[in-house]
Amino acid sequence: MIIFYNKKTGDILGTVDGRVHPKEVLDNMLIKPEYVKEEDVGKYVVPMKEVFEVIEEPIMEHRVVDKEKGIVKEVEVGVNKVKKVKELLPDVSFTDILLDIEKGKDYISNYKVKLDKSKKVAGLVPLK
Q1: Per-residue model confidence as pLDDT tens digits over 32-81
Q2: CA-based radius of gyration for the chain
Q3: What does each C-alpha distance from 62 to 69, 74, 78, 79, 81 come to in angstroms?
């Protein structure tokens, strides 16, 4: 998810949903209402972390199963344990809020961006 917000007020101006975005979107996308100056728009790309799982994949070989008829079949000869990415999850302190928003249980419009002392996104806070 990419969140566009007003740097002065923390109001969320819009989002680009999704967990992976092409470079063109990351570099060029801007959501800006007419009443907000471009220099007042902040863009926060939510960092993601990979969650891995170890799965077993069969090792297959072609074997002659009937010499008289010349029948060859693919048979399982063993198992490999392979580490694969199970899912991507937001790597932020407000992951639960973002997951609820993705699932439609909550809305981004119910929040504003909380900025830390260095004016970087530190979280989402409910609107009052």
Answers
A1: 999 999 999 999 999 999 999 999 999 999 999 888 988 999 999 999 99
A2: 24
A3: 15, 4, 13, 15, 21
